[in-house]
Structures are given as C-alpha cells and as structure tokens.
Amino acid sequence: MGALWVVAEPGAEGGLARISAEAATLARDLGAASGREVIGIVIAADPAPAAKELATYLPVVWAIREPAAGEHAWSAVAAGHIAALANGGEPPDVIFVGAGADGRDLAGAVSALTGLGVLVNAIAVSWTDAGPSVEMSVFGGRLLTTSGFTGGRGIITVRPNVTTATPAATPGKVNARDSTTKATLPAVRVVERVSEAGAQAPIEEAKIIVAGGRGVGGPDGFGIVEQLAKQLNGAVGATRAAVDSGWIPYSQQIGQTGKIVKPQLYFALGISGAIQHKVGMQTAESIVAVNRDPDAPIADFADMIVIGDLVEVGNALLAELRARSG
Fold this sequence. Notes:
- This protein is 27% helix and 25% strand.
- By secondary structure, the chain is α/β, with parallel strands linked by helices.
- The strands form two sheets. The chain has a nine-stranded mixed β-sheet, sandwiched between helices. Strands 11-10-12-13-14 form a five-stranded parallel β-sheet.
C-alpha cells in the first residue's frame, strides 16, 4: 500500500503557497480515510521555510535542497526529482499538487516521466475501495464528472479554494532528503521576475470581494467598485468581459479562465452571472448582487439581489458605510 504525496510549491517569499496548504489538508483527510501515510515534499533552493510551514499540516515532510530551483522554472526542476522518487522502491499511490500554473506543468511532466495518469482541477476527492474518486467541473462548469484511476494510482491537481487549509492538531516532522537524480527535463532559466506595481494581496485570499461586470459601463464605472472595496477592506474583482474590454487588469479576473475565489462576502455589481463567471465565485459564503435585470442568471444563486441602478445603489451604500465609519 503506497503513501499519498503532496508536492508543495514554494511561495513568492520562500514560504508555502496557499494552494499547497489546501492540497495538504485534503490529502491528510484522505490519508485518515484510507489508512495511508501522507508525506509532503518541498523542493527548493532553500526548502526550510516552506517545509516548516507544510509540517503544520502534515505528519511527515521531505525537504529536498535543489540550488537549480532558485534560477530555473520550479516545475521543470521539481518534476525530475518527483519522478525519480516515484519510480523508486516505494512509489506513491497518489501525488497531489495544486492546480496553479506551476502545479499543472509539474503534473504533466511527472505523468510523462512515470506513466501515471492525471485527473485535473479536482473540486472534491473521496476514497473508495478502488482508490480516489475525483469530482471535476467540466465544460465551463456546466457538468460535474466523477472519475478514478485504472489501478487506483495517479496524479491529482487540486483546484484552488475548494478546501479550507486547516493545520493539523499536532505539528509534523521535517526530514532532509536527497532524490536519486537531478532534474532530467530541459532547464528553463528565469531571467527576470516582475511584480505588479501597487498590487493588492492575492484576490484568492480576500475575505471580501467587490466585483464589476459589463454593467459598470466602462473603466470609470470601476471607480465605485474600487471605493466600495476600500470601504469594506476588500479586493476588487471583475468578469472576463470587463477584462477583455481593458477596463481592469487580468490579475483581477474571476471565473473559468481567471481566478477561483472563496470570500466570506462576494458583492457583484453589474454582473449577469453567466456560468463561466459563476464557477469562479459560487463557493463564496454570501453573494450579494446589484443588477437592473431581475431575470439575470445571478438572481438564481445569489443570497440577495438588489434590482436597481448600480451607481445609485452603490452611492447609497457608500454614504451609509462612510457614515458608520465616521
């Protein structure tokens, strides 16, 4: 009986990426359900910070120091090590990784090097006698499918914000580990790292999001969206239509081709609620919408919808919030 592995991505500052903490929580629960050992793996130029943080979620963490990870694309460097370990004497039953850009690249490379199948963008995973049962959202969120692996072994990429990262009751142990090989994939050198000027905290981590859609009318219409977000100490989000129109940066896009978010409050202004946007925000704890159209799709799943002009409603709400904060 093989173990469950969680391959963790180092964050921008060397700590643990949030998506990896979520994947670790999911794998830990599945380990308890299946009776399998759960092992976290951190591969980085300096794995200590991320490994220490991952150990708050998992009982055992392997820390692999790889200097090349500091100057090259992490997914290509890490894939060679993971494949070497998986092809060794104690192959895992399942490898979990976050379904971000690096995680998807790593999953594909490890699959090619090991022959393991991949199930992508998991929104839920349970354990059966045949192995993991993976629920996935397909066709822009129109259908949900449930799939498993032939032989019960494979790689699963976990969609962001489908699991709440929860530390274990008892911290685990970090063990230094060497893999049997260096990366076998072509090295992709990172020549420059660019941070967006004035960028807010990642929208995926925001507790409150105020989002605008085509209904805001243009870039000036996002002024009220931004003011509301500031008053609520939240982040600004947008639909693909607003992003494609150049009204707001892509980094704020929410939906099937954007970010997946799970805030406590999602305030939607001028958003119709098409399925492509819904799949990115439907797990919000509370959804409040402002729309002129009472028959807009968002009315079917919002917790509250205000029928009216978003500028009038937004300004009235701003006045009330400012009065309370004053």
